[in-house]
Amino acid sequence: MNPSSTAVTRQTFDEVMVPVFAPAAFIPVRGEGSRVWDTEGREYIDFAGGIAVTGLGHAHPALLQVLQEQGGQLWHIGNGYTNLPVLRLARQLEALSFAERAFFANSGAEANEAALKLARRVGFERHGVHKTGIVSFAQSFHGRTFLTVSVGGQPKYSEGFGPVPADLLHVPYNDIAAARAAIGPNTCAVIVEPVQGEGGVIPAEPAFLQALRDACDAHEALLIFDEVQTGVGRTGHFYAYQESGVTPDILTTAKALGNGFPIGAMLTTAALAQHFKVGVHGTTYGGNPLAAAIASKVVELVSEPALLEGVRQRSEVVRAHLARLDARFGVFRQIRGKGLLIGSELNERFKGRAKEVLTAAAQEGLMLLMAGPDVLRFAPSLIIPLADLDEGFARLERTLARVVASVAAEAGAAQPKG
Ligand SMILES: *Cc1c(COP(=O)(O)O)cnc(C)c1O
Fold first, then answer.
1. Are residues 254 and 112 in the same domain?
2. What is the CATH number of the domain that holds 86?
3. What's the rounded Cα separation, in Å, for the pair 302 and 305?
4. CB of residue 109 inside a 6 A radius of ligand 1
5. 286 close to ligand 1 (CB < 6 Angstrom)
């Protein structure tokens, strides 16, 4: 049997893959803009964006052109050589942000791993062996490497892997007093998401971020903003910190940076970057010319003021649709988020049913995300046509009608008959 000719189906997943994921029942094969088609030719509106990654939608013509051009030139050369696309990309990101130096990796977790290692290194070199404390927040998500998952604030992801790295402290998010109490002379870094994405789409209070900045300054600790999910236009600003008025020392960015081509980056100042001397950190693939060329085009397109304004406008449209659906069905406890990273928390009656909504949505031709068992998460393309937004919400309306009906039927069945 020639294995490459063997037909594969969704069931094959259960036979050949390590089961850390539970993918949907259908298999997408093609995408264009904000629409996706599966193996059966069924069409979906994409409100998931590959988990806040495809900010410019699928098969964007300008990105396809760069992929083909750079693909015919040079894919990979190794970090014994530099390359033109990566230098251009670093220049662009530094022109757009506080940063003066960039380190490129292949994912968000790796960007955070670099950020945390840099902070520990700076602490060690400037202050000594005691300065190793890392403060992070409950429900935060920073990736799945051993260090980043341990720093993350979701025990369900970090437990069961043996002794955790030392000197990590988790405190409640948006709790200024708890953060002040936790940040001290031994703290080398505080890492925070400006909007908690995986943790339930929870924006940081501006005063909370400012308090972190002040406490870090008081104790010479570094403030790291994990903008892996919020960065590259997602909140209606190129980076979310730019709206917050608080500037971090280190910023990590990934997800939408490559629009699906894997790339991540750690951005920082020249003074801090010096502590990563030759050989102190590294990567094989990070900063390769193919990923960098694509990201460079993404950054060029997303940083356009008109595009960012469009994100803020679409944000209002999404919120209006959600408010309308809530008025009709009474399903949400709260609608929150920034730009096109929006969460709607299900109310008591629908608690724990986000997964059920996602499954029903797929049957109606809508791809959606959750952020924990109680929150529907919306992260569509930043340039999703308004007609696709409207159509997606029409499909969500049909979805919710079904879910509401089935919850009512369950409740009816549970009623003792008089
Ligand atoms: C997705 C995410 C990560 C991890 O990124 P990977 O590319 O999956 O490693 C880290 N931080 C935040 C805030 C994220 O949303």
1. yes
2. 3.40.640.10
3. 8
4. yes
5. no
